C-alpha cells in the first residue's frame, strides 16, 4: 500500500475560512474562497475580522436580532494579526449577515445599511403606490419597526428595495449592485425557509409584507435587465425574456394572503395596505357593450377546438376573467388599479403565457400598456414601452394578431405626459372607480375561500423564483 499523502493544514488562513472549516489558500490580499463568494476577506480589510467574530459569537436569547454591522468595532481586536488562529469556533448561523456583502468593495457595511434604511424610510416607502396616507405610514414606520423586532427577512427585503431604488438613480454604482443582489438573495433564502416551517399567527403579518416587497423587488429588477440578450440572433425569443417574474411575484402575495387570512384578516397593518387598493368591481360580461378589450376574445371557439378537453373550461374562464380585469382597470381613475391584473389572473392564464399563446401575449401587452400612466414611478419607468414592444416582437410579421396589438403599441409609444381620452379610449373623470366601503377585502375573502391550504402549493407560488418546470413554448402566429 502506498504511503498516505501528507496534508498541509492551513494555520494562517482568513477568519471566514476558519469559521466555515474549509481550507484557505492564504492568498493575499483576498483568498480564493472569499473571492469566489464575492465577500470581503479579512486579509484585505482587518475590520471584517471584528464583524465575523461578532456574527459567530452566540448571544443571549433575545426577541430582537441586532445586525452584526451595528456592533461597534473593538480596537483591541483590530490590532491583532489577521492571520492569528481564533479560539474555539462556535456554530455559525446558516444565513449570511448583510454585512458580508454590503462591505464588498471596501465599503463600510454599517454606513451602507444606514444609507439604505434612510433611503427607504424617507423616499422609497413613499413610492409603493398606496392610495392612502394611512397605508403610506404603514410602509414608512410600522414595517421597519416590525423588521427590527427580529424579522430579518423583512429587514433584508426593505434594504433590497431601497438598494434597487438607489441603483435606478446611480446604475454604475457597483457597491449598490452588490448590495441589492446580496439583500435579495438573503431575503429569498430566509423567506422560503420561513414558509417551509409554516405560516403562523406570529409570522403571518411579516411574511405578507415581505411577499409584497419581494413583488416590488422582482418587478423593479427588470429595469436593469437587458432586452437584447443576443442582439445578433434572428430569434425574437432570444432578445426578449417573458415578464413571468411579474406574475409569479404578485401571485405569491395573493397566495400568502389567502393562506394566512385567518390570522391577518384582523390586522390593522395588513388591512390598511390591502384597502389602499381600489375595490375590484368587475363587469363579468367580457363581451358587453362597454367592453373595451372584448376583441381579445375573438376566435376563442376556434382555439378551444384544439385545446385539451380537460383544459377547455379553465382556459375559457381565465381568458374571460383577464379581459374583465383589463376593462375595469382601463376605466379606473386610479392608475395603479392595473396592478391588480398580475395578482388576480388565474394560474392557468400564467401557464398560457409561458406557452406563448398569442391570445395570452396580446392580453398582457394590453396590461403593460395600462401602466403607461405610471411612467413617472421609478420601478415602472418605461415599463410600458419596454414590455409591449418586447411582446410585439414575438409575433410574426403579418400575424392576424397585429390588429389586436394596435392599441397597446400606440399607448406604449405615446410621447407626452397626458394621453387624451380619445386615444386612451375612456374618460377617467367620468368613469373613475367607486368603492363600496370594503376596498379590496371582499375579493381577498373570496380568494381565501377558494384557494387550498396546501403548504406545497404555497411554496410553489409564493416566491417569484420558484415554480413548475418550463412548459414547451409555442410560437405566436
Automatic annotation (TrEMBL):
The keyword Nucleus applies. It holds the Pfam family Zn_clus. It comes from the Eukaryota. SUPFAM superfamilies: Zn2/Cys6 DNA-binding domain. Residues 13-43 form the Zn(2)-C6 fungal-type domain. Keywords: Nucleus. Residues 56-96 are annotated as: Disordered. GO terms for molecular function: DNA-binding transcription factor activity, RNA polymerase II-specific; zinc ion binding. InterPro entries: Zn2-C6_fun-type_DNA-bd_sf, Zn2-C6_fungal_TF, Zn2Cys6_DnaBD. SMART domains: GAL4. The keyword Nucleus applies. Residues 56-69 have a biased composition (Low complexity). This is Transcriptional regulatory protein-like protein. It comes from Hapsidospora chrysogenum (strain ATCC 11550 / CBS 779.69 / DSM 880 / IAM 14645 / JCM 23072 / IMI 49137).
Amino acid at each position: 500500500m502506498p504511503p498516505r499523502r501528507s496534508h498541509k493544514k492551513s494555520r494562517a488562513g482568513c477568519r471566514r475560512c476558519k469559521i466555515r472549516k474549509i481550507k484557505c489558500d492564504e492568498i493575499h490580499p483576498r483568498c480564493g474562497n472569499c473571492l469566489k463568494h464575492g465577500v470581503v476577506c479579512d486579509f484585505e480589510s482587518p475590520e471584517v475580522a471584528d464583524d465575523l467574530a461578532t456574527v459567530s459569537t452566540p448571544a443571549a436569547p433575545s426577541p430582537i436580532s441586532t445586525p452584526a454591522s451595528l456592533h461597534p468595532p473593538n480596537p483591541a481586536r483590530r490590532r491583532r494579526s489577521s492571520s492569528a488562529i481564533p479560539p474555539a469556533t462556535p456554530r455559525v448561523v446558516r444565513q449570511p449577515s448583510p454585512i458580508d456583502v454590503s462591505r464588498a468593495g471596501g465599503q463600510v457595511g454599517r454606513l451602507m445599511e444606514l444609507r439604505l434604511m434612510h433611503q427607504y424610510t424617507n423616499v422609497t416607502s413613499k413610492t409603493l403606490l398606496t392610495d392612502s396616507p394611512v397605508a403610506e405610514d404603514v410602509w414608512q414606520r410600522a414595517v421597519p419597526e416590525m423588521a427590527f423586532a427580529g424579522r430579518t427577512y423583512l429587514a433584508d427585503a426593505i434594504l433590497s428595495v431601497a438598494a434597487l431604488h438607489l441603483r435606478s438613480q446611480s446604475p454604475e454604482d457597483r457597491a449598490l449592485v452588490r448590495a441589492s443582489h446580496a439583500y435579495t438573495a438573503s431575503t429569498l433564502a430566509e423567506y422560503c425557509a420561513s414558509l417551509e416551517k409554516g405560516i403562523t399567527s406570529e409570522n403571518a403579518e411579516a411574511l405578507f409584507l415581505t411577499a409584497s416587497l419581494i413583488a416590488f423587488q422582482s418587478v423593479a429588477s427588470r429595469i436593469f435587465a437587458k432586452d437584447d440578450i443576443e442582439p445578433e440572433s434572428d430569434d425574437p425569443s432570444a432578445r426578449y425574456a417573458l415578464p413571468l417574474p411579474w406574475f409569479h411575484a404578485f401571485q405569491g402575495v395573493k397566495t400568502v394572503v389567502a393562506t394566512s387570512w385567518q390570522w391577518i384578516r384582523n390586522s390593522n397593518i395588513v388591512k390598511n395596505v390591502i384597502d389602499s387598493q381600489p375595490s375590484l368591481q368587475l363587469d363579468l360580461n367580457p363581451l358587453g357593450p362597454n367592453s373595451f378589450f372584448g376583441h381579445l376574445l375573438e376566435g376563442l371557439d376556434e382555439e378551444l377546438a384544439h385545446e385539451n378537453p380537460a383544459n377547455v373550461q379553465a382556459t375559457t374562464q381565465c381568458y374571460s376573467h383577464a379581459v374583465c380585469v383589463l376593462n375595469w382597470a382601463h376605466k379606473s381613475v386610479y392608475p395603479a388599479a392595473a396592478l391588480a391584473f398580475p395578482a388576480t389572473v388565474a394560474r392557468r392564464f400564467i401557464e398560457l403565457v409561458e406557452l406563448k399563446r398569442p391570445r395570452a401575449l396580446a392580453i398582457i401587452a394590453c396590461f403593460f400598456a395600462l401602466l403607461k400612466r405610471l411612467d413617472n414611478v421609478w420601478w415602472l419607468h418605461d415599463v410600458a414601452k419596454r414590455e409591449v414592444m418586447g411582446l410585439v416582437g414575438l409575433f410574426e410579421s403579418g400575424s392576424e394578431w397585429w390588429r389586436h396589438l394596435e392599441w397597446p403599441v400606440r399607448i406604449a409609444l405615446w410621447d407626452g405626459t397626458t394621453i387624451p381620452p380619445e386615444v386612451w379610449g375612456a374618460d377617467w373623470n367620468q368613469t373613475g372607480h367607486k368603492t363600496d366601503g370594503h376596498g379590496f377585502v371582499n375579493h381577498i375573502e373570496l380568494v381565501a375561500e377558494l384557494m387550498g391550504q396546501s403548504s406545497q402549493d404555497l411554496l410553489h407560488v409564493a416566491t417569484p423564483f420558484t415554480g413548475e418546470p418550463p412548459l414547451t413554448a409555442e410560437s405566436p402566429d
